[in-house]
């Protein structure tokens, strides 16, 4: 799966990145290569935590996909 990532230059040096589609998913790094690797790890951790939350849903809860 692909996600758009916004990379910002940090005022104190280095970079920080955010994933608009995943609220609260951020990372940072001293170089572009480092911030790219770190945000990939952050995305993977975010998705893993969301999957665990989904497993805890009650049997009466439903998840649907809506295409826009």
Mean pLDDT: 89
Beta-sheet strand percentage? Answer: 15-25%
Helix content: 25-40%
**C-alpha Rg, in Å?**
15 Å
- The H-and-E topology, N to C, reads as EEEH
> What spatial form do the alpha-carbon principal axes imply?
elongated
Largest sheet: 3 strands, antiparallel
Strands of the widest sheet, in order across it, are 1-2-3
Number of domains: 1
Please tally the β strands and state the result. 3
Secondary structure class reads: alpha+beta
The unreliable regions are none
Distance between the termini: 18 Å
Q: How many distinct helices?
A: 1
Structure description:
This protein has 68 residues and is of the alpha+beta class. The protein has one domain (6-55). It is built from one helix and three strands; from the N terminus they run βββα. The chain has a three-stranded antiparallel sheet with strand order 1-2-3, with helices on one face. A hairpin with a 5-residue loop joins strand 1 and strand 2 (15-18). The longest helix is centred in the middle third of the chain and has 24 residues, at 32-55. The mean pLDDT is 89.
């Amino acid at each position: 799966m692909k996600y758009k990532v916004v990379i910002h230059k940090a005022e104190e040096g280095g970079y920080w990145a955010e994933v608009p589609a995943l609220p609260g998913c951020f990372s940072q790094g001293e170089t572009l290569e480092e911030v790219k690797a770190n945000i990939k790890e952050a995305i993977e951790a975010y998705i893993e935590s969301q999957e665990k939350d989904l497993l805890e849903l009650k049997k009466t809860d439903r998840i649907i996909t809506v295409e826009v």
